[in-house]
Specification:
The chain is of the alpha+beta class. It has 3 helices and 23 strands.
């Protein structure tokens, strides 16, 4: 009975191995990393060196510079275009015997490392990158030491090439030492930096910068902002600010440094000119200035033009709403138009009557004198 069970187990195990091998031969492919510019040799599984083999890459015949030596394929001076899925088939049946995923790349060079504290006094972060692509998967190892003691390094969940470290103590005189090593299948390279705590403090830029015109002030702008939300303790570790502004018509900035204030009134703006405004932040005592905030634009208050009143409107106003005479003004004599006409007519009639009387008198008197002269002549 025991022998039967043992035999059954061996048969099952052999079947599993066969199935796994078949699955791997049909679908699986082993990865082979090679350096760019080198000569590459690929072996078709476990076939003998003198076996007759046909090679294909990505399903087509291999036509690049190649040398076939039995079950081996040799590629000369490979480059990025040489990467691909290589399959070998044993002649004459054409059965696939192996698959190789060839990945051509380069070993890493020294990574660029930078450390900064934008959450002082909680901790700092270090980030790194490669100046040149490797074209193959590359991993990074990070070690941080302070006073000969290794610190806990937490990989950032958002940024791939970044880690976070808590300050073990504040105001320490010991330097921090950070070692970042880049590793891939073709080689590795490391960069080591050391720094003092106070040299890496750099806040994030101020937030919510707003610039608004002041009513009836054509040369003033009111600027307000908020401290960076990443700065954890503004009360105990206050920030100072640096404001810069300029009109768009000029390239030269004007600067104002402010201590523990999140607002400022610009008083020397050009009337009617659009301004660009930015703010930076810094710890009161240590570290460096932040980057500039997002730029905002604003234009000082512009007076609205007064509306002119037409002559017709003025006449209507005078007729409908006459203004009363001042209390101290003397009353003036006013004569109705009809009365003036009556007086003028009476004067004219009187003058005409007088002239007629004079003419009549002159006529009568002249006739009498003429009759007297005639009588005298007869005598």
């Amino acid at each position: 009975m025991a022998n039967a069970v043992t035999s059954l187990c061996c048969v099952v195990l052999a079947a599993v191995v066969v199935v796994f091998a078949q699955k791997r031969s049909l679908q699986g492919a082993r990865v082979q990393y090679e350096r760019m510019g080198s000569d590459v040799t690929m072996q078709c599984g476990t076939l003998e060196a003198d076996a007759s083999v046909t090679w294909k890459v990505n399903g087509t015949d291999v036509k690049a510079q190649r040398v076939e030596q039995g079950s081996r394929l040799i590629l000369k001076q490979v480059d990025l275009s040489s990467s691909g899925l290589y399959s070998c088939f044993q002649d004459p049946g054409g059965e696939r015997r192996d698959q190789i995923n060839l990945r051509v790349g380069t070993p890493p060079k020294d990574p660029v490392v930078m450390c900064r504290s934008n959450t002082y006094p909680k901790g700092f972060y270090c980030s790194w990158h490669l100046q040149h692509l490797t074209y193959i998967p590359t991993e990074f190892e990070v070690q941080v030491k302070h006073n000969q003691r290794s610190l806990d390094v937490q990989r950032d969940p958002i940024h791939k090439n970044r880690c976070n470290v808590k300050f073990p103590e504040l105001f320490s005189t010991f330097k921090y030492r950070v070692n970042v090593t880049a590793i891939n299948a073709l080689g590795q390279a490391s960069t080591i930096i050391s720094f003092d705590e106070f040299n890496i403090v750099k806040p994030d830029p101020p937030e919510k910068v707003v610039a608004t015109p002041i009513p009836n002030n054509v040369r003033r702008l009111e600027v307000t902002w908020s401290s960076p939300s990443t700065w954890p303790d503004v009360e105990n570790f206050p920030l100072k600010y640096f404001l810069r502004y300029r009109p768009l018509i000029r390239e030269q900035w004007q600067h104002v440094e402010l201590s523990d204030s999140t607002s400022h009134t610009i008083t020397d703006a050009y009337a009617g000119k659009e301004y660009i405004i930015q703010v930076a932040a810094k710890d009161m005592e240590i570290g460096t200035w932040s980057d500039w905030s997002v730029a905002v634009h604003a234009t000082p208050w512009i007076d609205e033009p007064r509306q002119s009143t037409s002559t017709t409107e003025a006449e209507v106003v005078i007729e409908t709403t006459p203004s009363a005479a001042p209390p101290s003004a003397k009353p003036q004599l006013s004569v109705p138009v009809d009365s003036c006409c009556t007086l003028a007519g009476s004067s004219l009639l009187l003058l005409a009557s007088t002239l007629l009387s004079v003419v009549w008198f002159s006529h009568i008197h002249g006739a009498d004198r003429c009759q007297q002269d005639t009588t005298s002549m007869r005598d």
